[in-house]
C-alpha cells in the first residue's frame, strides 16, 4: 500500500513538472522582442546591400563554395531569396515577385512596425518562430533579384496578343563577408508564344501559395502551402491574360533556378 502511495505521488509530481515546463518556452511576443534589435541592424545591412545591387550590373559567375543549398524537400538551407524592393522595405509589394524563399522576409515583417501575426499567435509558444530567426541569422547567402525590364503581356484576344517579357538581374550576396556580391547574371523569360492552345472552360482550378501558421499543443509552426480551389471561370479575356501572365512568371522562375544550378553549382530543390 505504501509503495502504491509513493508511486501515485511520483506520478502526480511528474505530471506537475510537465505542466510547469509547458509554460517554460518563450511566447512568440517574447521571441520577437528578443530578436528585434538584431533585425533592426539587419534592416540597415540589407539596405546597404540593396543600394549596391541597384548600382551593379550582372557580371560573371563561377562555382561557389561552400555550395548554395536551398532544398525545400529536405529542409536544408544556407541561403534565401528576396526581391530587391523588399531589401529597401520589407512590407513593399514587388511588381514581379517570383515567390522564392521567404523566411528572411517573414522575420523582417515579424520584427517590423506592421507585424502581420494575429493576437492568437503572438501570445502562444514562440519556440518554432525562434528556429526561423536562428536560421535566418545563420544564412551564408542571399540571392537578390532586381527587375531590369518588365513588359506585361498585352491581350485583346487569342489572335490579338503581344508576348510579355521580363529580365532580372540575379545577384548572389555573401552575408558573412560584409554583403559582398560574389556572382551576378541576367535571366530573361517570355510568356507563351501564342494563346491558341489556351483551354477556356466554364470553371477552373486556381493554385496559390500562402504562409500558414498552425498549432500542435502549445507549439506554433509555419509552412508555405499550396492552395487549390475550384472557381467559376472569369470572362474569356481575363482567362487569356491570366494564362499569359502565369506563363511569364513560371518561365522566369524556372530560368532563374536553372541558371543558379548551372553557373554556381547550387543545390536547389523546390516543393512546387
Describe the structure.
The N terminus is likely disordered. The radius of gyration is 23 Å and the shape is globular. The protein is 39% helix and 29% strand. Helix 2 runs parallel beside helix 6. The strands form four sheets. A four-stranded mixed sheet has the order 3-4-7-8. Strands 2-1-11 form a three-stranded mixed sheet, covered by helices on one side. A two-stranded antiparallel ribbon has the order 5-6. The protein has one domain.
Keywords:
globular; alpha+beta; single chain; 272 residues; three-stranded mixed beta sheet
The chain-level structural class is alpha+beta
CA-based shape = globular
Q: Quick one: biggest sheet?
A: 4 strands, mixed
SS summary, helix count: 7
The total count of strands amounts to 11
What share of residues is helical? 25-40%
Total number of domains:
1
Uncertain stretches: 3-7, 16-22
Strand-residue fraction?
25-35%
Computed over alpha carbons, the radius of gyration is 23 Å
Termini Cα gap: 61 Å
Please give the oligomerization state of what you see.
Answer: single chain
**Sheet with most strands: strand arrangement:** 3-4-7-8
Series of secondary-structure elements, N-terminal to C-terminal? HHEEEHHHHEEEEEEEHE
Mean pLDDT: 87
Summarize this structure briefly.
The chain has helices at 2-22, 28-55, 84-88, 103-110, 119-122, 127-138, 236-264; strands at residues 69-71, 76-77, 79-83, 141-151, 154-157, 160-162, 165-174, 180-190, 203-216, 219-232, 267-269.
